[in-house]
Amino acid sequence: MDEIKNEAMETILQEAEGEAEKAESSRALYEVKMKFLGRTGKVTALLKSMRDIAAEQRPAFGKRVNDIREKLETMIADLEVKMKKRELEKKLAGEQIDVTMPGRRREKGALHPITRTRNELIDIFAGMGFEVFEGPEIETEYYNFTALNTPADHPARDMQDTFYITDGLLLRTQTSAGQIRLMEKKRPPIKMLSPGRVFRSDDDATHSPMFHQMEGLVVDKGVTLCDLQGMLDEFAHTMFAATSKTRLRPSYFPFTEPSVEVDVSCTACGGKGCPLCKGTGWIEVLGAGMVNRRVLENCGVDPDEYTGFAFGMGIERIAMLKYGINHIRLFTENDVRFLQQFKD
Ligand code: DAH
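A: This is the predicted complex of the input protein with 3,4-dihydroxyphenylalanine.
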């Protein structure tokens, strides 16, 4: 066999082995493989050069080249397996997580005191058979005032500083509007609870331009003021304390006749007299009364056949009394130090 060719073969083998050993990644190893065994690789070129070799030397030459090729292929295949294993181990090590490490704590939220109070009120009255009906926040003058026996020139309109949107449209000042909307749709017997946001141009420690009310309406045959008081006692016992008492004082609302203001025995002193109840032992919590016959007539309900009572309370006011909150703004400031106190 040609001495020079033989030497070249040995050099190529050594070169290939050396480079393959040094390859540090599968990618680098692949490149070595291509450099020697690929279509234009050095070993392949040796095979191609066979035709320049004297016929009698060809078998020996071919055998030698094939040996080299096989040797290289096996070596590279072995290295590839090792390389893949090493690379996988490295990847897994990089992705390792320590399951014993303490997790990142997620703060648990809590219901806003207004939502909480609202839900509590709904629970109390739902237990007595009331169903919830929610009216729109943007109301017409008709539903907010006129149908509630408060025509345009009625002085009672001044009791509520209204935000008007256009001539006949306003932000509802009271959830009482829901009474009319429901009675137009549903015939008695009615037991409705209507919670929602209301709006008035008013702002001090106990008033805010947006607040929440809960309206109640009961219409049926033979409903009396006694039924109202009995139900309010039940409400006070569950909402405030088992020993809470209620009392009715005469008042005026255009949509009720007679109208009453309802007091509960003071939530701070229990009725003995303290700064919160200004020494009286009583705290006003809601307005109520027997539904005015004009209101029933406006909704097509016969006032000679049916009677009813209605009540309306401020949810902020109830929450302030129940939780001893002294400024209405706390509800809308979203201070977590305040809100945190209402976690279960
Ligand atoms: N709507 C009244 C207000 O906002 C509260 C009220 C009083 C509602 C008497 C009633 C009621 O249903 O009968 O001041």
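The beta strands are 131-132, 138-140, 169-171, 190-199, 210-220, 246-253, 256-265, 282-291, 307-314. Residues 174, 176, 215, 253, 256, 287-289, 310-312 surround 3,4-dihydroxyphenylalanine (CB under 6 Å).
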